[in-house]
Write a structure and sequence with these properties.
The structure is a single chain. A three-stranded parallel sheet has the order 1-4-5. The chain has one domain: Flavodoxin domain (Rossmann fold). The chain has 120 residues and is an alpha/beta fold. The protein is 38% helix and 22% strand.
Length: 120
Amino acid sequence: MVFAVPLWNFSIPYRLKQLIDLITQKDILFSFDERGMGGLVKAKRALVVYARGLDYLSESSITPRESYDLQRPYMDLWLRFIGISDIGEINVEKTLLGSEVDLETRTQGKRRAVELADDF
């Protein structure tokens, strides 16, 4: 599974959230009984490409990941909940600041995509 997920208002887009809500059904994507919950998805690998307008990863960020990023934790929780245990991640940041500013993260993202594609 491969997802391209933009950051909208600190989380995932409402349309992706709606899709997740519609497809995450008991006995389809997860099981639930007296022993607890378990994911039913057979594929165990996923790749999520995160796009963000500002800087969430650097130490000098005005929007640090721990406080402002609900995008990655939501996707990570959902994927693990439905049974996907191997989750690759690519981050492209500072997209609101122009192509000169986000060029570095786009270049790193492309490089990471090639690395993950070779292993996928």
